[in-house]
Amino acid sequence: MLIRPVGDDFRVIAFYLGRIFLVIAGAGILPLAWAAVAREWNPFGSFLLMIGLFALLGVIGVRLAPPESKLNWSHGMVVVALTWLIVPVIGAIPLLLSGHFGRPLDAFFDAVSGLTTTGLSLLGDVDHLASSLNFWRHMLQFLGGQGIILAALSIFAGTGGITLYFGEARDERILPSVTSTARFIWAVSVVHLVFGVTALGLVGWLVLGFDIDRAAFHGLMIFFAGFDTGGFSPQSTSIGYYHSAIFESFTSVLMVAGAMSFGLHYALWRGPRRAVFANLETRTILSTFGLTMALTLLGLAATDVFVSAAGLTRQGFFQILSAHTGTGFSTIPSIELAGWGGLAFGGMAIAMALGGMGSSTAGGVKSLRIGLTIKTVVNQIRQVLLPEHAVVGTAYHQSGRKHLTPNLIQSVMTISLLYVALYLLGAGMGLAYGIPLQAALFESVSASANVGLSIGVTDPSMPIPLELVYMLQMWAGRLEFVAVFSLLGFLYAWARGK
Amino acid sequence: MTTGFLLLAGPALATEEVSVEELVEQAAGLAGEEVTVEGELVGDYGFRDDGWMWTQLNGDVYVDEPIREGGSPLGANTGIGIRMPIEFAEGLDPPGRYRSRGPVVLATGTWKYHDPERQGESFLEVEALVVVEPGRQLSEHADWKVIVSGALLISGAAAIGFARPRV
């Protein structure tokens, strides 16, 4: 029997949402200060409004705390799903008031895209956007990539943290407690931030010849979007703006670091490094990257677009790395990407769909699920080929020796199939609006896997229903479905339960 | 728009004039061609040790109708990378950014499409540059209603947050 949620259920949810909103209100002080220093008074006002709304909703939520605020699994999932809907609504206010969007939904689209680290954008004239707004867009990617919930968990400990942690599509606890795991993840990120911004800033200043303040600005923006596999950039021509192999190399390192699971970061920092390469996930992602890279390069070589091997390799490598890590940076215009057919298109689309590692900032099906799916299929074939009573080994290595269990296989298959369904949903919607199959599929996979590469379908003139579907894809894809279904179940129970 | 020409540098060349949009759309077909494009310089001027200055040239609706002056947001920018000898950049107004419209120029040069010498980068190598319109500042007005609303909301949140709960 469905049990209808009661007042205390809503109050627990409001309490945790309130705490998270207060954390976001605190984070909003950074772009506010940026706007004040840069004397950008229009964005300054809009940040003040945004912080005020977050703070007001936050304190109201906290005030609603029931006497015993026990967060169960369902509450936690609902909190996560609602957080990822409400934060972009309020976070879109500065974007909307900037005048760079034609309709309010477009500003919300960009906030969802930023927070889910997708990188698709409907913003008009990014080349003249205020620096504080650029900072906010990129900071949204940083918050979303690290996990808003994770940010909140790092600050407030308490019961229910584990539910919130898993709800945000993280499936490994690196340290004994969720709070210490959250703090470790932030420590890794801060170290990368310091080194990443310094390296990119120095390249911008010393190699590209930018003014030092602008070099630091570009370094910070590209770090946020690269390490969190987000793909926004402060200039309309993305990484192609920099015309620099060295800058692309540093950006590539950040993209790889972002697509690595934080468990792998931990192993590289603290554990035996050799064991990292024994992991099923590491082997899978190296194999799929090699395969999609080969497909793309072969496809591009057949088109004669690049007349030199160096050009083919540099441009092909960067686009495929960006696609596989789910970042969405590019060094070529979207109109040219749209012309990639055959193997090159296939390589890019497959790379986007597969995505990075689990518990990373990347999207897509994720390498561990791909590896486990392949292992399951191989085991099934071996079982058929071997004598009837033969036992097929189910062990695999992933941070230690583990076994494939029926429950694990079911979970892996279910999530993988849901991703395929999500890819087809957006593609079908695109086809219904007369978009050619290749473009519809590419854009749909890009939205669902939180990549952000576009071949021109995502545009302010796109139909609103298609825009809504892409937003749904970004949201569900980032949360890996569980929290989304929990929210739907909670609403159904509220409407039909007893 | 083409009033007050100022030849900055390079010889005058009789070449095909194309828009930035046409250049991006027909990038392969115009590879190696001498072309003239008109647009706004935006972003940064990157002065490199090898004697080149790199920047971006935009040719979109925002050149004539900046959003800060009431232009409508009609989608993404259309721009290309350009490089020119550093001496061409002397005297150029700052590039377009927030609150500033960069200089609008006519740039004549060779369209390098996936240039093998630069590992597949595409850009216009400028041989002559004419400033059509100098750069200028764009106005920004603070919206006091928004600022006051934000301050009121924060005050309200603080009042609720610090109020003693009823027993």
Question: Could you walk me through the main structural features you see in this protein, from its secondary elements to its overall organization?
Answer:
- The complex is a heterodimer of chains A (498) and B (167).
- With 498 residues, chain A is mostly helical.
- In chain A, helix 10 (178-207) packs antiparallel against helix 12.
- Chain A has helices spanning 7-27, 29-37, 41-63, 73-91, 93-97, 104-115, 131-146, 148-155, 161-167, 178-207, 212-227, 245-259, 262-270, 273-276, 280-303, 309-324, 334-337, 342-354, 367-385, 406-432, 437-448, 464-479, 482-496, and strands at residues 395-397, 401-403.
- Chain B is α+β, with helices and mostly antiparallel strands.
- Chain B is 17% helix and 38% strand.
- Chain B has 3 helices and 9 strands; from the N terminus they run ββαββαβββββα.
- In chain B, the strands form 2 sheets. Chain B has a 5-stranded mixed beta barrel with strand order 3-4-5-8-7. Chain B has a two-stranded antiparallel ribbon with strand order 6-9.
- The N and C termini of chain B lie far apart (71 Å).
- Chains A and B meet through helix 3 and helix 16 of A and strand 3, strand 4, strand 5, strand 8 and helix 3 of B.
Mean of all residue-level pLDDT scores of chain B? 91
Radius of gyration of chain B: 22 Å
End-to-end separation of chain B: 71 Å
Q: Largest sheet of chain B, order of strands side by side? A: 3-4-5-8-7
What's the structural domain tally of chain B? 1
- The overall average pLDDT of chain A, rounded, is 92
Overall outline of chain A? globular
What's the total number of strands of chain A? 2
- Terminal CA distance of chain A reads 8 Å
CATH class of chain B: Mainly Beta
Assign the CATH topology of chain B. OB fold (Dihydrolipoamide Acetyltransferase, E2P)
Number of helical elements of chain B: 3
Q: Unreliable runs of chain B, pLDDT <50, ≥5 residues?
A: 1-5
**Assembly type of the shown chains?**
heterodimer
Query: What's the number of helices of chain A?
Result: 23
Helix-strand makeup class of chain A? mainly alpha
Q: What's the story with the biggest beta sheet of chain A?
A: 2 strands, antiparallel
The pair of chains with the biggest contact is: A-B, 69 and 67 residues
User: What is the string of helix and strand elements of chain A?
Assistant: HHHHHHHHHHHHHHHHHHHEEHHHH
